[in-house]
Amino acid sequence: MIPYKTIIQIDRSSKQALYIQLTNQFIVLIKKGRLLPNTKLPGSRTLSELIGLHRKTVVACYEELILQGWVESVPQKGTFVNKNIPVIQKQKLGDASRSKKEISTGFSFTIDPILDRAFPQSYEEDFIYINDGVSDGRLAPVNEIAMIYRKLSSKKSIINHLGYGTTYGNGSLRESLVTYLNETRGLNITKDNIVITRGSQMGMYLAAQLLISNNEYIIIGETNYSSSDTTFEFSGGKLLRVAVDENGLDTNAIEKLCEKYPVKAIYTTPHHHHPTTVTMSAERRIHILNLAKIYNLAIIEDDYDYDFHYSHAPILPLASHDKNGNVIYVGSVCKAVAPVYRVGYLIAPKNFVDECAKMRRFIDRQGDAVLELTFANFIKSGSLDRHLKKVVKIYKNRRDLFCKLLRNELEGYLSFEIPRGGMAIWATLNKKYSWSTVSKIAKKQKLVIPEWQRYDMGEINHNAIRIGFAAYNETEIYEFVKRLKKTLEIVKGYENN
Amino acid sequence: MIPYKTIIQIDRSSKQALYIQLTNQFIVLIKKGRLLPNTKLPGSRTLSELIGLHRKTVVACYEELILQGWVESVPQKGTFVNKNIPVIQKQKLGDASRSKKEISTGFSFTIDPILDRAFPQSYEEDFIYINDGVSDGRLAPVNEIAMIYRKLSSKKSIINHLGYGTTYGNGSLRESLVTYLNETRGLNITKDNIVITRGSQMGMYLAAQLLISNNEYIIIGETNYSSSDTTFEFSGGKLLRVAVDENGLDTNAIEKLCEKYPVKAIYTTPHHHHPTTVTMSAERRIHILNLAKIYNLAIIEDDYDYDFHYSHAPILPLASHDKNGNVIYVGSVCKAVAPVYRVGYLIAPKNFVDECAKMRRFIDRQGDAVLELTFANFIKSGSLDRHLKKVVKIYKNRRDLFCKLLRNELEGYLSFEIPRGGMAIWATLNKKYSWSTVSKIAKKQKLVIPEWQRYDMGEINHNAIRIGFAAYNETEIYEFVKRLKKTLEIVKGYENN
Description:
Two copies of one chain form a homodimer.
Chain A: H1 4-7, H2 18-31, H3 44-51, H4 55-68, E1 71-74, E2 78-81, H5 95-100, E3 128-129, H6 142-153, H7 171-185, E4 194-197, H8 199-211, E5 217-221, H9 226-234, E6 238-242, E7 244-245, E8 248-249, H10 251-260, E9 263-268, H11 282-295, E10 298-302, E11 327-332, E12 344-347, H12 350-363, H13 369-380, H14 383-409, E13 414-415, E14 424-429, H15 435-444, E15 447-448, E16 464-468, H16 474-496
Parallel strand pairs in A: 3-15, 5-6, 5-9, 9-10, 10-11
Antiparallel strand pairs in A: 1-2, 4-12, 7-8, 11-12, 13-14, 14-16
C-alpha cells in the first residue's frame, strides 16, 4: 500500500468540498501511475482512519471515482483501479523539471508576422506618451452612462435583453443611430442598412473578411491607418498604394490601378485622412464615387473623426452621396465618448448588412445588449449631442494652444498644417533628424514616442508622425512641448558635433 | 438662374444649423448637375432676399462651400461652381425610381452558404420555444452586476480603464479567473495563460483562425455543436467526423484518422458532449491526451457547462491533465450568469495566448474593461459562487421534474437518459415519427421546435434533438409537456390513419 497518510493533503480552508479534494488527489495518483490498473484501494474505514477524514467523505470520494470511471467496485472484493486506464505517456523532461518551465504548445501554428504589428505598449507614471489622436478619458461621461446602465438594469423589461439575441445589434440602438446619422451625416438609411459592431475596427474586420480573400486587391493610401493595412492583409488581401496629397487620396492614380488590376475595394478616411489629417476635396469625392460605380468597387469609408471639426462644418461622408450601393460606412461612438465602450456600426446596402450579421454570429455570437440599450438612451436623450458640444469646444482650445506653442517653440524642427478638426496633427520632422534618434533621446526626457514606424508602412520616408493633442490638458501641453523641445535641442547638439 | 426659392427648403425646426442645411442643398445641386461647373452663384444679398435667410447665413454657406472645394471665389467677379467638378455618373434607373427601391451593393461579394447556418429566429408571445439548453434570464443577477458597474464607474480610478488598453483583457479579471479556474477546475495556470474573450464563441473563433487554414483537418463528433462546425469551416478547415457513444468521442476512431490524415486539431466538449450530453470516460480522456501528444494535435476543449452538475462532482477538464501544451481550453461566464454579458476566456500555453491577443487587436480592438472589472469584482467577492449554488439547486429541481414528466407522459414517443448536469436533455424521437412533422404540428400548439436540423449536420439520422429545461419554471414545464404531448398524440393519429 502506498503511503496515503503522507501523500494525501487535505486543505480544510479551501472552498472545495473535502470529498472532491480527495477524489482529485486519487485521480492524480492514477494518472501518474502511482496507482496502477487493478490496484486495490484501501477499504473506506481503513483510509478514513489513515488520513483522518470522516468515513462518509471517503465513501463519497469512492462513489465519485466510480462515476467518473477511474475505479471499479467489485462486489465482495473491494474497490480497484479501472483495468482499462491506459498508462499516461511519460514526458521527455519529467514532470518536476517540466512544470517549472514555461510550457509551449504541443501543436504547431503559424506565428503570423502580419499580426506582429499590434505594437503592444506598457505605461509608466510620470512619462508623457505621444498618442495618435485619442480623446481625453477625464472628460468621458462615464458616470452618466453608468447611471443609465444601472437604471435600465433595474427595469423589469431588461429580462428580454439578457439572453441570446439578434446579431444585428439591439433594435433601439439601431433606430437611434439611424435617426442620429441621417440627421448629422446627411445619410438616408433605414434600420435595414445598419449592423451594430464593437467599434469601427470590427466593422472594418467584417468588411475585410467578406470582401477580400486570397490575393484580391485593395487600394489604400501610401500613408494609411496601419490597423487597416493589417486587417486587409490578415484577410489575404494585396495592398495597392496610391499617393496622398493635400486633397486626399490621388484618385487619378486609383483610376490607373483600376484599369490595370481587378481591384475589389478602396479603403479611405476622407473626412480627415489617417494619418495625414487632410480632407478629401469635392472633386475627388465625386471622382472616387464614379470610379466605384464604373469598376464595381466597394469603398470602405472609415469616418473615425466626423464628430470633431473646429473651423468649419463637417464635410458629409461619401456614404451620403452614394446612390449605387458602393460605400460601406464604418464609424463608432468610441472616439466621441471613450474607447472602452466598443459601440460602433457598419452601414451598407441591406444584402451586405445581412451577410455581416450572419458572420458576426461566429465571431462573438452577439453584442452586449445592455450596453447597447444604454447608448440608445444616451443618444436619444440628446446626451451625446451635449457631450460632443462640450468636448469639441475644449479640444478646439487645446488644438489652438498646442499648435501655437509648437510653432513658437519648435520652429525649424517640426512642420505641420493646423488641422481643421480631429485630435491630432501630422508633424514632419526636419530631414536633418530622424524619429528613431529623437525617440531614443525623448525617453530620457520621460517622453515616449511609440510606434513611429507604423506611419510609414509604405516606406516613403516622409519623416512624419501623428501627434495627438486632445488628451492633454493645458498644463500637459506646456509640459509636452517643453520635453519635446529639450529632446530636439539635444538631438541638434549631437548633429552639430 | 435656377429657381432657388422653390428648390431650397430650409427646416427651421431641425437641429442642423441653417447655413449647413443651405450648404448641403448646394452640394446636392452641384452633384446632380443642376449647377454645372463655372455656373455663377447669386450674390449673397440677392440669395438672402430670395430665400428669406439672413445674409450672414448665406455668406457662411458660401465660405463653407469654398472650404469644401465645391465653389471658388473669383475676386471682383463673384462665386462660381468649381470648374474641376466632374459631372456625376447618371444612374441607369434614374434617381427617383431608384431611391424608392432597396439598393443592393454596387460591388460583388460571395454569399457564403456556410454562414447561412446562423438560423435566425424571431419570437412571438404565448409561444413556448424549445431551446438547446439556456439559463433562465429571470434568475440572472443583473441588478447586482449593474450596481457593481455603477459603483466602479464612479471611482476616480476608472479613468485608467477608459482608453485603448491591452488586448489580453483586463488584468484584474485575468487574475480573478486564474484563481477561480485553478480552484474549481484543477487547472494550474498563471496570468500568462489566459486571454479574455467575448464568450467562448470568440475563443473558438480565435483558435480556428490561428490553427486551421485552407483544407486542414479537424476532428469533431458525428453529432457536434453546430456553431463549431461552422466556425471551423469558415476558417477553411475540413471536418472529419467520429462516432459519439455513451462514453463520448470514439478515441479509437480518432487514432485511425490521425494515422491516415495530417490532422491539426480535435474539437471536443468532454464534460457533457454537445449535443448528446454524454460525459467522456476516464479511459478516453487519457487516450485523447496521449493521441494529442503523439500526433501534435491541438485539442480545443469547449467546457460550456462545467458549472452545472447535479448528481456528482464535476469531472475535471482535459486541460487540468494536460502537461504537454496540447489543450486550448475555452469557456465563459455567459451560461452561468446571462448570455448578454459576453465574458469568456481562452486558456493555452503562453505562446498561443500571445498570438490570440495579437489577433484580437484586429477583430474588435479590445474588450470592455468596465464590464470586465465588474466581473472581476463579482467573482472575487464570491458572488459568482453564491449565484451558481443558487441556480444549480433550481436547475436540478427543474431537471428532475422535467424528466419525470417526460417519462410519465411521453413514453413510447421520446427516449432519453437523465443528464447528470447541464441544461438540456438529448431526446430521441421514436423512429415512427420525424421532427419535421412534429415541428409542423407543434406550431399549432404554440410550441416551436426551431433548428432541429442542426443536430444532425453529419446526417446520421439519429432522430434526436436537444431540449433545454433550465429556462422553464415549474408552471412552464407542465405547460411544455402538455403541448408536446398533444402534438405527439396528433402526429400519432396521422400515422394511424
